[in-house]
Amino acid sequence: AQKITQTQPGMFVQEKEAVTLDCTYDTSDQSYGLFWYKQPSSGEMIFLIYQGSYDEQNATEGRYSLNFQKARKSANLVISASQLGDSAMYFCAMRGNTGGFKTIFGAGTRLFVKA
Amino acid sequence: DAGITQSPRYKITETGRQVTLMCHQTWSHSYMFWYRQDLGHGLRLIYYSAAADITDKGEVPDGYVVSRSKTENFPLTLESATRSQTSVYFCASSVRDSTNEKLFFGSGTQLSVL
């Protein structure tokens, strides 16, 4: 069975500082994908970053990087140089490789960026 | 504009009524998903589909029915709505290539069951 865990319900970070949002996962699939999505107060789901389980390099997209530690089954999101507009809910998700690409989400972390 | 469209955007219904939420995508993506998001919570997978006529249960399928007769459409039906099904419903489709993968989400349907 697949499981995604985000243990930080809320986080505060000072503007311009870096912040790490934690995500751990569990799966018996050998091949899988990991995602991070941002949900601002408007409610839309915004794709941030993707990491494949066989990718040896950590994924990066602008100020976002995914710290992938396969042995520890963790896929933490690092946001560098936080901006006020980064205040939002952040969701970690995992796509398995059996049964039609089932994709599940964690409970989310609400990030507050302080000026 | 091409994309993934959900309708209606808002829906109010009464307990016991049947409700269908529509989802249409213009990309011909194979994989499609339905999620519900309750206030202050994450997204929970209701049903997903790998292709037309192939659907499977997700984490919380009870009380819901889906169909996928055409690749581009993936309607979700609440057969007899209950108050616990008050939620925001998101439809998504996914695309995957050798190096990247992404879910595209609709704008959501806010459903209230009175």
Structure, described:
Chain A is built from no helices and 12 strands. Chain A has strands at 3-5, 10-14, 19-21, 24-26, 33-39, 46-52, 60-61, 64-69, 74-79, 88-95, 103-105, 109-114. In chain A, strands 2, 5, 6, 10, 11 and 12 form a 6-stranded mixed β-sheet that branches. With 114 residues, chain B is mainly beta. Chain B has strands at residues 4-7, 10-13, 19-25, 31-37, 43-51, 54-57, 64-66, 76-78, 87-96, 101-105, 109-113. In chain B, a hairpin with a 5-residue loop joins β4 (31-37) and β5. Chain B is globular, with a radius of gyration of 14 Å. Classes of the chains: A mainly beta (115), B mainly beta (114). The A-B interface holds A 6, 33, 35, 37, 43-45, 47, 50, 52, 91, 93, 95, 99-108 and B 31, 33, 35, 41-45, 48-50, 54, 56, 58-59, 88, 90, 92, 94, 96, 99-105, 107-108.
In short, what is this structure?
Chain A is an all-beta fold and 115 residues long. Chain A has strands at residues 3-5, 10-14, 19-21, 24-26, 33-39, 46-52, 60-61, 64-69, 74-79, 88-95, 103-105, 109-114.
Assembly state of the chains shown: heterodimer
**Number of beta strands of chain B:** 11
What is the count of DSSP helices of chain B, taking H or I runs of 4+ residues? 0
Helical coverage of chain B, percent range:
under 10%
**Overall outline of chain A:** globular
The number of strands of chain A is: 12
Regions of chain A with pLDDT < 50 over 5+ consecutive residues?
A: none
Distance between the termini of chain B: 34 Å
Most residues in contact, chain pair and counts: A-B, 23 and 29 residues
